[in-house]
Specification:
Blueprint (H helix, E strand, L loop, with lengths): L9 H12 L4 E4 L1 H5 L10 E6 L4 H10 L3 E4 L19 E6 L5 E6 H4 L7 E4 L8 E2 L20 E2 L19 E4 L1 H12 L11 H13 L5 H8 L5 H32 L14
Parallel strand pairs: 1-9, 2-5, 7-8
Antiparallel strand pairs: 1-2, 3-4, 4-5, 6-9
């Protein structure tokens, strides 16, 4: 059985070869991209790759021809959470490595509401050992870079932090992810100004935004200011921040109300007179 992507460059060499033959960049989206945005989550065994809508058909035909990838149906992938997408522009093709339990999803630009040629940033490797924030300007506290967990997310400049497995080797093809503002715009376009509580297909993009908010502390005003001037959907992003603040304040009120109610309903224990025992 082939090694996992986290340890084997060879698992992705055929992907690089197909994209190179089509003069197409390797752009990761979804959870594998979030890992390079400072989000500490397990990426799983499915990698999302962004593909130009005009080239989806020819690239999808090329993958089975490598002899390493088999096109599969979503229903055959255990525990798959389908990507948020509107039915009229859905375009995701799934492929499984023939010799291992690893998958790639070729996602058209329409699916992510994101273009391949939009602003992106290069990362050193497709899969990272520790999550890292490659766009250091979005770090909530870049001045304090000790290795203590409280100063996370990690930056690529942090010393003594392993980001890539030693056995991974060098990749033969440039690897990119969207910039954080571009990725947030993508999520906001997918949500389309709708309330995620009322629409199931908003769950994943809203969840991705919530991950970013949690791990790069977007609830802090100075972090929000960095992004609001860089995203195209500043109004929707401001509404997302306002909704998070409202929900956090509501949770705190509910916690305090439960504490007060619990204290009021608790019965005092029996009163035991204090007595001094002789030595």
């Amino acid at each position: 059985m082939a090694q996992a992507w986290t340890q084997s460059v060879a698992s992705l060499e055929s992907v690089f070869a197909v994209l190179s033959a089509h003069d197409h960049p390797f752009v990761m989206v979804g959870t594998y991209a979030l890992r390079w945005m400072g989000v500490q989550l397990l990426p799983g065994y499915i990698m999302d790759i962004l593909i130009r809508t005009s080239q989806v058909a020819s690239i999808c035909q090329a993958f089975p021809q490598t002899g390493e990838w088999l096109e599969v149906d979503e229903s055959s992938i255990p525990g798959l959470a389908t990507l948020s997408e509107r039915e009229e522009c859905r375009s995701v093709q799934r492929f499984k490595r023939c010799d291992d339990q690893w998958y790639i999803s070729l996602c058209s630009e329409n699916t992510y509401r994101l273009t391949v040629d939009s602003e992106k940033i290069q990362v050193p490797y497709p899969i990272n050992f520790n999550s890292a924030l490659v766009q250091s300007e979005f770090h909530p506290n870049p001045g304090d870079r000790s290795s203590d967990w409280k100063t996370r997310p990690y930056l690529m400049t942090d010393k003594d932090i392993a980001f890539v497995w030693p056995a991974s080797g060098q990749v033969s093809f440039p690897v990119f992810i969207p910039t954080i503002p571009e990725f947030l715009d993508s999520c906001l376009y997918c949500i389309g100004g709708r309330n995620y509580r009322d629409y199931d297909d908003c769950d994943i993009p809203h969840g991705d935004m919530s991950y970013l908010a949690r791990y790069i502390l977007l609830d802090l005003p100075h972090q929000q200011d960095k992004l609001l001037s860089k995203v195209k959907n500043a109004k929707w992003l401001a509404e997302f921040f306002a909704d998070r603040q409202w929900r956090q304040e509501r949770r705190m009120r509910l916690v305090m109300e439960r504490q007060v109610k619990s204290a009021a309903n608790s019965k005092p224990g029996p009163q035991v007179p204090f007595a001094t025992l002789p030595f």
